[in-house]
């Protein structure tokens, strides 16, 4: 299982799953696979009626969001986002990486009726971005990875808020109330698992509590699903309320399953799309909006916002990057993939044809970003390995100066 903790192998597996899904969907067995994806698993006595595709995107993907939430909580508590000075630059850069792609998408789709897809190009796939940096970035200093991690975590937080506020309808308050109860119980039980807790005398005594947490987690997901709120938010809430140390241990145990099974399965399912047999002029504005806004919007938005906010970092002592390093981060930020695919399914749910076009646009836009980021990262890494740039924070500019590279 250790191989699935590797960022580079996780990225390659994710890409391979997406390519396999797209190829098989357009092969002789494509119709059967598409029919299987839409086949429903109905449990009327529980009020559940999910297709296999939605079982993956609404159910299994909640585990991925749980991991994201635990990591976000850790960064806010003891990591690179635990103070205003540390969070300022990546936060402003992340905001630029959301606003500019959304703006480009809205400009392209204005008057088309598909403007509600603006969230699709705003997401960054943290697993892919870190994987590409690990593959091509040998020699790049740690602070660049830290900045990318902080930006991607904040980007995921924005995505979570978008899902919660823009893709939620007909909220059932009673179900949310039940979810709040199971969530509080989950939080309380997790605090009994802390290593220094006086309530736990042995590891054997922890198993009933762990079983109780699994039951409470599933119940929380069920009630959130029944409430009308997108079910992946349950994973976010569980990650945020869980005690930090047990949460870290849970992530350690779940990460190989998320990287090795859940994310590739979602990528395969989401990419299981028949390529439309239409001319380029017949593709919807949503297709072009995503294709352009994802790689171009992220590159421009993160670079401009990050460059302008460098003044803030120098004043308050936060993470500061040269423009060359910022270009590396900005190009990696254009790899939307997992979260963008989820946003695409939610935004265009009323038209399967546009969902399919959006999926292809996400894959193509992310592919463009991958090629560009591979070039930027390789170039920058070569400079560091050749000794043309100092790799320690002591090479940061003096107040009032800003080196270009």
UniProtKB/TrEMBL annotation:
Reactions catalysed according to its record: Na(+)(in) + 2 H(+)(out) = Na(+)(out) + 2 H(+)(in)
GO function term, MF aspect, one: sodium:proton antiporter activity
Transmembrane spans: 51-70, 91-112, 118-137, 146-167, 173-193, 205-223, 229-247, 259-280, 286-311, 323-343, 358-379
InterPro entries: Na/H_antiporter_dom_sf, NhaA
CC per GO annotation: plasma membrane
Cellular localization per UniProt: Cell inner membrane; Cell membrane
The organism's place on the tree of life at top rank: Bacteria
Swiss-Prot/TrEMBL keywords: Antiport, Cell membrane, Ion transport, Membrane, Sodium, Sodium transport, Transmembrane, Transmembrane helix, Transport
Gene3D superfamilies: Na+/H+ antiporter like domain
Keyword Hydrolase part of the UniProt annotation: no
Keyword Transmembrane helix listed: yes
Any single biological process term in GO: regulation of pH
Membrane topology according to the record: Multi-pass membrane protein
Pfam families hit by this protein: Na_H_antiport_1 (PF06965)
Entry function: Na(+)/H(+) antiporter that extrudes sodium in exchange for external protons.
Protein family (similarity comment): Belongs to the NhaA Na(+)/H(+) (TC 2.A.33) antiporter family.
Protein name: Na(+)/H(+) antiporter NhaA
Source organism of the structure: Microterricola viridarii
Annotated gene: nhaA
